[in-house]
Amino acid sequence: MANEEIARIFYEIADLLDLEGVRFKPEAYRRAARTLEQFPSEVRSLKDPSAVRALPGIGEALSSKIEEYRSTGKVLYLERLREKWPPGLLEIMRLEGVGPKTTRRFHEELAIRDLADLKAALEAGKLDHLPGFKARKVELLRQALSHRPPGGASRSGGRLPLPEAQRIADELLASFRATKAPVDRVVYAGSLRRRREDVGDLDLLATTRGDPRAVMEAFCHLPPVREVRLSGETKTTVILDGGLQVDLRVVAPEAFGAAWVYFTGSKDHNIRLRTLAQQKGMKMNEYGLTRGEGRTDSPTEEAVYGALGLPFIPPELREDQGEFEAAAAGRLPRVVQPGDLKGELHIHVPASFGPEDLDPWVREARDLQLRFLGFVFRPEDLSASSTRLGEIRQRLPGRKGGVRILLALETSLSTGEKGLPDDPPDLWFVRPGGARKGGTTAPGPGASGRWPDVQVHPEEGPFPPGSPKDRLALELAVGPREVYLPPGARALAEGGALFLLSARPRLPEELRRLSLVAGVGARHWVCGDQVLNAREDPVGRRPA
To answer: Where in the chain is the domain with CATH 1.10.150.110?
Structure first.
C-alpha cells in the first residue's frame, strides 16, 4: 500500500464531504493526506497502530481507515459517499473557479451530473437564468471548460511540474522587474519556494514604499497576462497565457519577513507558527507579529522565527513534518544549499564529443563557479562507434579553464558485462537492476570487484536503494520537465545515505537548474555533506 494511494482516498473523501457542505472534516482529511504524501517511508511499515495514530493529523478514526484499506483494499466510508454523488461532479468541482457549492447547485437545480451535462447546459443557455450567475460568470465557466487539460481532471488538476513552474516564475519576475513599477523587492513564495514536485499556482510577494496601485497596474499589463481576475491595493490575481493563476501581494518593507513566511506556507506550518505566537501572548499574520496594540516589525524571516524562539527554518522544510521538533531539540539539519554544489556529474554526450564541444560547457561552468563536469558514456554507444574510453580521455583535457573534466560510464549489470571497455572511468554509474541483491559485487569496468559509485535513473525503476554501508550514492535529479526521486528519499537522507544531485543538462545553460535540484534535495532533508557533487573531489576515496 503506497502512501499516495491512501492519500488519494482521503482527498476524494474531502472533496465529497465538501459537496455535502460538511464543515471542518474535509480539511482534517486533507491534512492527513498531506501528512501521508510527506511521510518519508511507507505507512505499511508501521506495524504498531499507535505509531500510525501518532502521525500529524491522523487520529483514531483516520488510522482505522488506513488499517481498513490495508486489510481489505477499500474504505467503506468512501464507498458510501460515492453512492450519494455522481462521479462526474468531482470533475466539475475541480474546474477553475468552480467550487463545491456551485457544483452542488448545478446538480440539484439543473440535474447536471458531469462535464458533458454542464457543456450542454451552457450551450442551451440554462445557466443564463440561474440566480447569481451573471454573464461574466458564465463566460468564465466557458473559459474554464475550454482550458481544461486533455484527458480530464485529476487530483493534481492543472498543476505544473516544478521545473516548468520555475521557468515561468523566472520569466515573469524578470519581466516585472524591467517595468518602472515602484517595487523595492519582488520574490516568489508558495509551493514553488518550498520546492514541491508540482505547483498549482504562483504566489509572488513585492514590497514598495510608493503607491501599491502603481505596482498592481504594472503587473496587470505584463505581456503574459491574459486576464485580470482581481485587482486591489494589496492583492492582484491574474491568469497567464496557458491558464496558470498568479497571485501578487504587496506589503510595506517592514512587514516583508512575516509576509514571506506567511505566503510561503505550508498551511500546516503556518498553523503551528500561529499557535506558538498565541502561547507567547502574540498574534501572527502576513503583516507581522503583534502583542496587544503594539506591532513587532518583521523585515526578515529570521526576525519572525527569532521572536517565536525558533532558529530559522529553511522554506523547503516548512511542511509540519518534524521541523518544529527538530528545531526545538537543536537537531535542525543543515540542508544542502545551491552554493554547496561544486559540479555536475551526469551529462550524457555522444562518443564523438570533442574539445570544441567542451568549450561552451566550460564557459557556463565558470560563470556558475563550478569546479568539475562529468561527461557520461554508455558502453553500447562506444561499441557502436568503435570508440574506446581511453581515446576520449586523450581527446579531452583533464582540466580546462580551471574546470576539472571527468569521464563516467553508465551500465546495467543486469544486461551483462559484454562490451564494457577496459579503460577505467572516473565514475561508474549503474541503472536500475544493476545493483545485485545480497550485497555482492560484480566486476566493474577496469576494476575487478569494484562496487558502482552511483545508482542513477530512479524513474526507470525498480530502484533498490543502496545503504550507507554500501556508500552507493543515489541520484536525485530535476530534468527539464520532471523531478526524479529515489523511493523514500527523506528516510534515506535521515539514515545517512549519499546522493548525487543532478540537473541532467542537455545544453550548457541547463547547468543553472542545479540550484533547483539543491532545493529539492533540501526538501527531502538531504544535507550538504551527503552530496557527492558537493565535495571538492567527487572521485576521491569515500569514508567507509
So the answer is: 2-147
**Nearest CA among 180, 155, 159 for reference residue 168:** 159
Q: What is the DSSP letter of 531?
A: B
Secondary structure of residue 198 in the 3-state scheme? strand
Q: What percent of the chain has pLDDT over 90?
A: 51
| Residue whose C-alpha cell is 533547483 | 516
Q: Report, as an integer, the average pLDDT of 354-380.
A: 95
- Residue 228 forms beta bridges with which residues? 238
* 464 pLDDT above the threshold of 80: no
Please state, in angstroms and rounded to a whole number, the distance separating the CA atoms of residues 4 and 10.
10
Letter for the amino acid at 125? Answer: G
Whether omega before 266 lies within 30 degrees of 0, making that bond cis, reads yes
Q: How confident is the model at residue 474 (pLDDT cuts 50, 70, 90)?
A: very high
CA angle 250, 241, 151 (to 5 degrees): 120
Whole-model pTM: value is 0.75
**Surface-to-core class of residue 217, CB atoms within 10 Å of its CB (0-12 exposed, 13-18 middle, 19+ buried):** middle
C-alpha–C-alpha distance, residues 111 and 117, integer Å: 8
Scanning 100-161, the segments in alpha helix (DSSP H) are: 100-110, 115-123, 135-146
Name the grid cell of 182: 515602484
User: Residue 397 and residue 97: Cα distance in Å, rounded?
Assistant: 57
| H helices present in 376-429, as ranges | 379-384, 389-395
Question: Predicted confidence band at 527 (pLDDT cuts at 50, 70, 90)?
Answer: very high
Position of cell 450551450?
Answer: 123
- CA 377: distance to chain centroid? 29
CATH superfamily of 2-147: DNA polymerase beta, N-terminal domain-like (1.10.150.110)
Which residues make up the CATH 3.20.20.140 domain(s) of the chain?
338-534
Residue 105, classed as helix, strand or coil, is helix
More confident residue, 24 or 508: 508
What residue spans in the chain does CATH classification 3.30.210.10 cover? 255-328
**In angstroms, rounded to a whole number, what is the distance separating the alpha carbons of residues 97 and 384?**
55
Alpha helices per DSSP H over 234-367: 256-264, 267-279, 301-307, 323-328, 355-367
**Domain 255-328, CATH class in plain words:** alpha beta
Q: Which one-letter DSSP state was computed for residue 275?
A: H
User: 49 and 58 in contact (C-beta within 8 Å)?
Assistant: no
Q: Where in the sequence of the chain do the CATH 3.30.460.10 domains occur?
A: 160-251
Is 48 a residue whose pLDDT tops 80? no
pLDDT at 1: 46
160-251 CATH, one of 3.90.1150.10, 3.60.20.30, 3.40.50.300, 3.30.460.10: 3.30.460.10
End-to-end CA distance of the chain: 34
What's the pLDDT at 244?
86
**What CATH homologous superfamily does 338-534 map to?**
Metal-dependent hydrolases (3.20.20.140)
